[in-house]
Amino acid sequence: MINLNQVRPIEILLVEDSPSDTELTVVALANGKICNHLSMVEDGVQAMAFLRRQGEYSHAPRPDLILLDWNLPRKNGREVLTEIKTDVNLQAIPVVVLTTSAAEQDIQCAYALHTNCFITKPVDYKQFLAIVQVIETFWLTIVNLPSQEQPRMQGICTCTVPQ
User: Of the four listed, 25, 31, 140, 151, which is most buried by Cβ atoms within 10 Å?
Assistant: First the structure.
């Protein structure tokens, strides 16, 4: 039996510059059934400082999941995703691009940069809430994520394929 006092909340980093989308995401996650801790930043520069625990973010938790807007000020989602996926200490963190863009070029670019998924935000309030809850359910209850207690892998991971 699981002792709920020993369960660590899932750490989510929301990188979003729209106050209304941030508010909707907070509501959707609060209504979910998963114990989570949501950290929020408003631009790509803040996101990278948070992830690298620099400056005011020196005690920031390591996220289990990043929800990343594509169209951010100061450093856009493409630049943030590139930095995350090329940093050996960050690249294992799943990144969900959650954006208003439905442009094929943005979708292709995000996957070329190794996003874990690309979702266009619905305009409808109820659909937006439902999408965030589906993201939460899928990434935080179905998917097996790397343990935060394990040391980060250095270099390339290899596996043996049975013959």
Answer: 25
Domain boundaries, the chain: 8-142
CA distances, 64 to each of 35, 109, 111, 126 (Å): 12, 23, 19, 25
pTM of the model: 0.82
Neighbours of 83 (CB within 10 A): 18
Positions of the chain with pLDDT lower than 50, given as ranges: 1-6, 150-163
Phi and psi at 51, nearest 5°, equal -65, -30
Separation between Cα atoms, residue 107 and residue 151, nearest integer Å: 32
Strand order in the sheet with 65-68: 36-41, 10-15, 65-68, 95-99, 117-120
DSSP letter for each residue of 18-54: -HHHHHHHHHHHHTSSS-EEEEEESSHHHHHHHHTT-
Cite the DSSP H helix spans in the chain. Answer: 19-30, 44-51, 77-86, 104-112, 125-137
pLDDT tens, position by position, 45-84: 999 999 999 999 999 999 999 999 999 999 999 999 999 9
- CA 122/CA 133 separation, integer angstroms: 13
CATH architecture of 8-142: 3-Layer(aba) Sandwich (3.40)
